[in-house]
Write a structure and sequence with these properties.
mainly alpha; Rossmann fold; 2 domains; seven-stranded mixed sheet; 66% helix; disordered N terminus
Length: 596
């Protein structure tokens, strides 16, 4: 079961480490960052210890009797008791022969621990488990306190042995607060043989009140005992009850629960640290989101307004290009009339007038007008396709860029220490220009020809062309009859007939162009909508890394605030609900415990 749990929780641990790295860029104080790192490492250590021998560390101030207590637990003198400061100058580890203590000994500060091996079945009341006699918490040598801190972080259960003369010594209290509800705590008062019954009750009550108030401890009792008497008599006052509690902690099923709740304690502390910072983070993130949303609206809107203004100025060119495209696909006199305009119309009119007097000059006028019309059409197309002419000037662009994105940059610098990837003004301008050029290219290469193809197949073409065809047929019939009868129609008749046909085509051309003008207006709306959509995509890409980081941080904070509940659901097994409220130290789950 233990190995399955370890393997199962590996995914949760990996996710926690990922979330921790995601939040590392937040502007938290260095001590908060360090505390979170310590708690994450502690949680990992607790996860890996499931299924191994119990590790019990004796914690207390100088002269409290820790070394004597270790000797009593072991059944022989392996630690040297004394009254000088510090009493224990190096950690003493009492471990079974087959127990791997390398994890607890690796990288410990201070003097190297002394390891005493034993056969679990041979002697001692703490058979099969690991006991560590730690240096004093109130040692004048600060390095000793660092050793105790490291040992406590690597332990399953802390046996807190208070001195009869300093039950509430501040150095021990401060030390234990950092492990409140993260370890099983067994509280004991040493040197009970030197205390009267009244003093026993009074000091035990003081230690119990302190533990409940400062550590959130809810155990049943504070053990008052004499380790020295216990060495001689295992049935001495208070000793059997103390050993019974330690043995209950060491039992396999109970040990798994304590280790899991030790892990839940660390998970709860992580959740509390993050939850305490969450309101401020939410405020910073909301401000950043507002600025991002504002910039995402403002900059594209200002650029689109400028593009729309220039697009409206070029709508007449777009209409003319549409007329030309329809005219090319409209096979018939109506198509020819639709393409004719401006210089072409003047040239054809002049040609018709000159035809009576000089046919060659008339043909030249008409040809010149057609060439001029072709040149004008090419100029219009180049004017529409040129993306550079659609964007604001570099000076205007720089002002708009700074006005829109400076508030975002300021809000981002407040919300995190590391700046997200940020697009420069030149890069963003190039993306906007590419968006305009793409829309115009699609307009000229696909949408405008498509609209022209549909319009060229409209029934309107027959309404314009059929009367012209009928009129031409009538002229042919008249000419044939005149030829048969010997009465020729003459040049004046043909010119007049051409003028009448031209008048009809001009009327049809006017109607067709008005109809096509509405289609050109729809094309303008289409290209405006496409450019707007592309601008929105450009802003999403430009601010995407910042928004993704914001989303990842929100999700990481949410998961870390729920870390205890998540790990509890993963760790608890059937039958765990009863011990949940009191395991070894009697502590409740740490979700509501205040931070020290």
């Amino acid at each position: 079961m233990a190995s399955e749990k370890i393997e199962f929780l590996a995914e949760e641990m990996d996710r926690l480490r990922t979330d921790r790295e995601t939040l590392r860029s937040l502007p938290w104080p260095a001590e908060v960052q360090g505390e979170l790192d310590r708690l994450v490492e502690d949680l990992e250590a607790q996860r890996l210890r499931v299924g191994r021998a119990a590790v019990l560390t004796l914690v207390g101030s100088t002269g409290a009797g820790k070394s004597t207590l270790l000797n009593a637990l072991v059944g022989k003198a392996i630690a040297e008791p004394g009254e000088s400061r510090p009493t224990t100058r190096q950690p003493v580890v009492y471990a079974p022969e087959d127990a791997d203590v390398s994890e607890w000994l690796a990288d410990l500060p201070g003097p190297a621990p002394r390891v005493e091996r034993y056969r679990p079945s041979a002697l001692g009341t703490w058979s099969g488990q690991i006991v560590i006699d730690a240096p004093d918490t109130n040692s004048v040598e600060t390095s000793h306190r660092a050793v105790v801190q490291a040992l406590a972080e690597r332990s399953d259960v802390l046996v807190v042995l208070a001195h009869r003369q300093s039950v509430v010594e501040e150095s021990t209290v401060r030390f234990l607060e950092s492990f409140a509800q993260m370890r099983g705590l067994v509280l004991a008062l040493g040197h009970g043989d030197r205390l009267s019954a009244a003093n026993r009750r009074e000091l035990a009550q003081q230690l119990e009140s302190l533990a409940r108030e400062r550590f959130g401890w809810r155990g049943e009792r504070v053990h008052v005992l004499s380790p020295l008497e216990a060495l001689e008599d295992p049935q001495s006052q208070g000793w059997p009850e103390f050993c019974a509690e330690l043995h209950s902690v060491a039992q396999a099923g109970q040990l798994r629960r304590i280790r899991r709740y030790n892990a839940l304690g660390s998970a709860g502390r992580i959740a509390q640290w993050v939850a305490r910072a969450r309101p401020q983070l939410d405020g910073q993130w909301e401000a950043l989101e507002r600025e991002v949303a504002q910039a995402t609206r403002d900059l594209p809107a200002r650029v689109l307004e400028e593009v729309s203004r220039r697009l409206d100025l070029r709508q007449s060119d777009l209409e003319t290009l549409l007329w030309d495209e329809v005219g090319r696909r409209w096979i018939g006199p109506g198509g020819l009339a639709l393409r004719a305009g401006g210089m072409t119309s003047l040239g054809l009119g002049a040609g018709a007038w000159l035809a009576r007097r000089n046919p060659l000059l008339a043909a030249g006028a008409a040809a010149g007008a057609l060439v001029t019309s072709k040149w004008q059409s090419r100029q219009r197309e180049q004017s529409v396709r040129g993306g550079e002419a659609w964007l604001p000037s570099p000076g205007e662009w720089t002002r708009w860029y700074e006005a829109a994105l400076a508030p975002v940059r300021l809000a981002a610098s407040t919300a995190e220490r590391e700046a997200a990837p940020w697009p420069s003004g030149e890069e963003l301008q190039a993306e906007f220009q590419a968006a305009v050029e793409d829309a115009l290219s699609v307009l000229m290469d696909r949408e405008l020809p498509g609209q022209a193809e549909q319009a060229a197949r409209s029934p309107l073409r027959w309404a314009v062309d059929l009367p012209v065809y009928a009129f031409a047929l009538w002229i042919i019939v008249r000419s044939a009859i005149g030829f048969y009868e010997g009465a020729y129609v003459g040049m004046d008749f043909l010119v007049n007939a051409a003028l009448l046909a031209g008048a009809w085509l001009w009327l049809g051309r006017t109607v067709a162009r008005r109809w096509l003008r509405s289609r050109a207006g729809r094309l303008v709306q289409w290209v405006r909508a496409r450019i707007e959509a592309r601008f929105a995509q450009v802003m999403d890409v430009a601010l995407g890394p910042l928004q993704r980081r914001l989303t990842e941080q929100r999700e990481a904070v949410h998961r870390m605030c729920r870390l205890e509940a998540t790990w509890r659901a993963k760790l608890e097994e059937p039958g765990d609900s009863a011990p949940r409220d009191r395991v070894a130290n009697g502590s409740d789950a740490p979700s509501s415990a205040p931070l020290s």
